[in-house]
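Inputs:
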Amino acid sequence: MAVKDFLRERFFPHLWCPGCGHGTVLNGLVRAIEELGIRKSDIVMVSGIGCSSRISGYLDFHTLHTIHGRALAFATGVKMSRPKLNLIVPMGDGDALAIGGNHFIHACRRNIDITAIVMNNRIYGMTGGQYSPLSGYGAAATTAPYSNIDHTFDVVELSKAAGATFVARTTSYHPKEITKYIKKAIQHKGFSVVEIMSQCPTYFGRKNKIGGAVEMLEYMKDQTTPIDSKAKAENPDLIERGIFVEKELPEYCEEYEKVIERAKGGA
Amino acid sequence: MTENIKFVQGNEACVEGALYAGLDFFAGYPITPSTEVAEQMSVQLPKIGGSFLQMEDEIASLCAIIGASLTGHKVMTATSGPGFSLMQEALGYAVMAEIPCVIVNVQRGGPSTGNPTHVAQGDVNQARWGTHGDHAIVALTASNHQDVFAVTVEAFNIAETYRTPVILLFDEVIGHMRERLVIPEPGEIPLVERLRTSVKEGVDYHPYLPREDGRLPMSDFGSVHRYNVTGLYHDMWGFPSDNPKIVHGLSRHLMDKIENNAHQIAMVKEYYLEDAEQILISYGASARSALHVVVSRRNRGEQLGLLELQTLWPFPAEIVRDRCRNARSVTVVEMNKGQILEQVKHAVEAPERVFLANRVDGVLINPTDIRNFLRVIQGRGI
Ligand SMILES: Cc1ncc(C[n+]2csc(CCOP(=O)(O)OP(=O)(O)O)c2C)c(N)n1
Ligand code: SF4
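Outputs:
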């Protein structure tokens, strides 16, 4: 299948700004699914609210565009009620980790077989450039006109600590890695998190005087490095890309099958 | 059959009704006085291969059951005031996306944490208007366990018929009191099953195009039709739209499908109304005390009657107006500051003859309370 076979052309043009990183994620995601050869009808994509969350509407899967921050809770219901379906949940950084932070850590903890994709542009794009929990100390945003005093957290460390059994990170400068990690995440049995650092030139780029999409992509190239690289040893401030966790633990829906067996008086 | 007779709490009667209706997916978060619903579900559902989930909060609980409804399951969650407050955004989502689901609120005193272990009926207006924006809603209640069972089954039937969330507004007394329950035989109460589309694979299916009768056949997530579901105003494909015509049309459809069928949804019980000069209107636990007063006064020859409401929303205004036409006085018995009172005043021809008999101190309004109110209303003093 070609990429366009996954798109709902009727629903285009999309609403993303020129240069927005979310389109790169869409592209990488579609390629991952194409390479895996999963039937479109076996995929349910659940998203919340934000520029990033609009990704679901453009794709020809079963798509559930929900409310801000709660996508993982909806997805948990879909998955538990039909465990054979593949659940993919793309979220913005605000969606996943501010309003949705509680659902995020609990989904990690349950190890339910869902693939979460955090499209981290470090800003609230949809509402016009307010700071998010990922903006970081010192960032500029429409609600941080005197510089942000909120500290950020690390999506990878958070996911690890909360119990996700697959955790990876890359950026929109690295589309091949996007496809590779999403593929692995979907194949992984259990809760998987792929953080994709992405650019919002319209708000983050402009407010923080980084420039347009090209400069932001350059920035992501320069600020990141593969896990355990020499560059990291020399410059500890660099952000690592790669797979941080990949382990097998009992998956939630399978565990629930055991509950059913016990309730019915079996093993 | 004796095995069909149980001695249970109202919360358990609700669970039994839900299972009878075909529920096989429940998600919830513990909260007094509704917790027994979740506990019983966790015992019963795995036995029939159904799913029980304890989520991280009430928001997640309602979201999870909406997700499960979309794959074709009959679903429910249960909570009390604070949890019901948290659910309001997702409740609006279920209204907008037209997702069949049942939400139980076993009421406690409020606002806030309020009076967790005591009875109140203060969430009547919240059930109606808790979620933002113009919308229609269905809320049912009951005053004894047999009726709790029956209205629970009916809640599922209404949810499927109209593709809507349905709220079951019980109260602490009904939830916790133990009483006899006879489980009907299978088939004794008719069940409405999911209306699924007959559109074949490869042919365009419009998830939000109502049939001529106003109903919208569904297609389970995971089956052949792939479509979009959103809480934004949307067109017949389920795709977001802010086209004024589409917004207007959908908003009307969401109201009309409930309001135009209010007479079908209306459930009341009538006691001695034919010749009643004084009418009590009540619901839930309050109606038990009201009925006690009516029966004892009838024995003394007084022409007192009771109209018990089982459907609170859409408010059965026509029935109320009709039954109260010849009454000298109408007294609304409830455990709040007059939430149904206002509806009754609005519905009847003579609002100046409508009075309130209430209690809002966490104690069940009892027959003596009601008698005292009636004496005052009749100008006799206590
Ligand atoms: C309950 C609720 N609060 C606030 C909003 C407004 N809102 C919409 S999107 C959004 C943030 C979007 O940021 P993010 O999730 O990072 O995604 P992005 O738009 O940057 O892709 C906010 C605050 C909302 N829709 N719902
Ligand atoms: S506002 Fe930012 S996140 Fe939203 S579409 Fe534009 S560039 Fe992308």
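Remarks. The mean pLDDT of chain B is 97. Chain B has two domains: 1-195+203-265, 268-379.
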